[in-house]
Amino acid sequence: MFKTNTTNPVPVNPGENWTDTETNAPAEKRKASSITTETESFLKNLPDVVCLSHLRWDFVYQRPQHLLSRFAKYGRVYFVEEPIFDDSHASRLNVSAREENLYVVVPNLPHRLTAEQIEEEQRTLLNSLLKEQLLERFILWYYTPMALGFSSHLSPALTIYDCMDELSAFKFSPPLLKELEQELFKRADLVFTGGQSLYDSKKKQHMQTHLFPSSIDKAHFAKAKEQLEQPADQAAIPAPRIGFFGVIDERMDLQLIAAVADKRPDWQIVMLGPVVKIDPADLPKRENIQYLGGKSYQELPAYIRGWEVALMPFALNESTEFISPTKTPEYLAAGKPVVSTPVRDVVKPYGEAKLVHIACTPEEFVSGVEAAMAQASDPAWHCDVNAFLAGRSWDNTWRGMVQLMSQALQHQTA
């Protein structure tokens, strides 16, 4: 039933400890020490982690990869993706290693199954995975409520819902998603949210909702400040370059991108990332707009280094109402000034702190880019950015989650 492959692991750079706050109060120190001891005990006896995700591990390296790769340092992690359909006559699982203790699990299902059959096949394959891998004590980590349809019969040690997007607002979202999310709230021990807007929405629906904004691998993106060789497909593009990396989908304001290109034909707009859920034919075509396709996480600093300004040209629509773009601190850690449309979780805190230029119309966006180009040489801005990012790291975010998980498990067994 299982096909196992091995691919090269994704390196993860270590960051800071979860808490860097000092206190002179002995009681507070004893409390902090107790929490640390409990957390380390939890990690030494970490249950296996079974993650049920709507995202592909190898698609874009982002929040799930940063968090789950850290769990894999202490125990086994199984990242279960959505099914792939083919012409085979029998369902099967493809299990492949990405790094030590971390396995990507892909259900392969035959074409022409009904929705009910698809769910039943996924349930059967998941049961087989648990049995054959001896997964008896495990944590269920959900990224999509839709997975509840084939996993609701399980009895995990903990149930975690890491809500990184308002999936119901996305294009082609399943009608059942909202209903299943309500069921997941009833089952979840903890709910984590990837941004302030999501937190404000979800905290009304679950008492144990906690805000963990997507963090940053500062050391990785700071490589963009070094003397890196320009990638061949970007080196031929004349300067000045302003760029974007990420998924190019219904969240992009394509008309804004076209208008900026028209107003400043001397600027080259570099777009990195896969095109999904929209027709590539609808992308604006201009001599000064360059679509270079998807790039690996490791390649990003070299591309960013060649930009004068980084862009976040998000449309203001239902699908972006609750987004909290991870690329905001990543751009800043790379030393690049940023211009963004007024996405709520970008305006606060980045816009209010004068770290990111906020612009709505094409004229404002052009003015914002011009101001950002001048800002690149401003030592005061760089100092403010460094101070803002100083306490942020994926290690800190992960450690905070682990602490809450340890407490939740202790509460269950008390």
TrEMBL record:
This is Glycosyltransferase family 1 protein. It comes from the Bacteria. Residues 1-24 have a biased composition (Polar residues). Residues 1-34 are annotated as: Disordered. Pfam families: Glyco_trans_1_4.
